[in-house]
Amino acid sequence: MMETNHSSEDGSPIFDNLDIDLVMQVLANTAFSPFFVFFIPIFYIFQGAKMDDRLVVLSFLYYVAISVFWFLKWYSKLYRNQGSLLMRPKPMEWSEEIVIVTGGASGIGELLANTLAVRNVTVVVLDVNPIVTENYNIAYYKCDVSKWEEVEAVSKKIIEEIGEPTILINNAGVVQGKLLVDLTAEDIQQTFGVNTLSHYWILKAFLPSLLKRKAGHIVTMSSALGMTGVAQMADYCASKAAVIGLHESLRYELDKRYQCPQIRTTLVCPGHVLTPMFKTVKFPNFPLFGFFCPSVQPVTVVKKIIAALDDQHSQTILLPFYTNFIPYIGHLPSFLRDFVQWVSGADYAMRDFVKISGRRPEEGSVSAELETKN
C-alpha cells in the first residue's frame, strides 16, 4: 500500500489536514471501536465500581450498541458479496491481473495506473492522450471511449495482444461548467458520451471476458454530485447520476441473472478532488468550511480504490465524510435544503470556472496533481 505522506513538486510533504475526516478516523479507532470500548466498563470495575452501578451498566450497553452496529455493517458487506462468516477471500495475485483504466492519461487515472504498475500489474490505459510514465507494464491505446466503434475495435486489439482483462476501472470524465442554456449540443454529447456512455461501451466490450472467468472487479467512478444537483453542473450531475443507476442495475444483473456474484462492483463517489479538472472551483472561505467539507487529495481516492480491489468485496466508497449525508439532503424540508445549499456555496462554486481542455504536461503529471493542494 502507498505511504501516508507524499511530496509535491517542490519537495514539500503533504500531510493529512485537521478536518472532520481525521476526527472521524480517530473516533472510529477509539470511542466507536468495540475493542476500545470493551475496556471502559472493566476500567470502572477495577476502580471499585459494582456491576450494577449506573456507569458500568451504561458503558456496557454502549459497548453492546457499538458492537451490534459494526457487526451489522460487517455482515451487510458479507451478505452483499455472499462471503463466508469465517473465511476471507484468498489474497489477490496482483501479477496475474490485467486492469483497464479509462481516462488514465491524467488526474486520478494517471496516478492509479502508475500505482497499480508498481504492484507488477499489467495496466492498459485508454485515453485520447498518451500517459507519461516510466513503468514498462503500462500499455497505452488511443481511444475515445465515448464512441462505441473505437471501444469495440480497441477491445479486440487488447484481448489479442495482451489478454482478457480482469479489472475494469471506468474513470474517464469531463466537465463543461456552463449554465444550462449556455451548453451547446456538442457539450452535452461530450459530457454524456465520456461520463456515462463510455461505461456502457467498456462493459459491453469487456464484461463477457469477466463472465467467462466468473471473476473480476468493476470500478465505477461517479461523484458526490451524482447524488444531488447544483447550479452550472446540470449535465455533469445528470451524467454522474446515470452511472450510479448503471452500477446498481449491474450488481443485480450479475447476482440474479448471470449468477456471478464473484464479479465485484465498487462505486466511487468523491466530493471535490484536487485535480486540474476542478482547479478553478471556488468554495466559501469561512474557517469551519474547510474543516467540515474538506477537499480530497487524488492519492486518497487511489488508496481507497486499491484497498477495495484488495478487499475483493463489492462496496460503495463515499469520501470525504460529509458525502455520506448527501443522499439524505433531498428528504429535508425545502427551507433546510436551501440552507444547506447556501452554506455549501455549491451553486456559486463554478461561477469563475475555466475548463482545462486537452492535457498539459505541467498539469497532467502526478506531481502536479499533488501540487494543486497549494
Automatic annotation (TrEMBL):
**Which terms in the GO cellular component ontology are assigned?**
membrane
Q: How does it sit in the membrane?
A: Multi-pass membrane protein
Print the keywords alphabetically. Answer: Lipid metabolism, Membrane, NADP, Oxidoreductase, Transmembrane, Transmembrane helix
Q: Which SUPFAM superfamilies match?
A: NAD(P)-binding Rossmann-fold domains
* Limits of the Ketoreductase domain: 97-266
Keyword NADP tagged: yes
As for subcellular location, the record says: Membrane
For this protein, the record's Pfam families field holds: adh_short
Q: What does this protein do, in the record's words?
A: Catalyzes the reduction of all-trans-retinal to all-trans-retinol in the presence of NADPH.
Identify its protein family: Belongs to the short-chain dehydrogenases/reductases (SDR) family.
Q: What is this protein called?
A: Short-chain dehydrogenase/reductase 3
Instruction: Specify the species.
Output: Agrocybe pediades
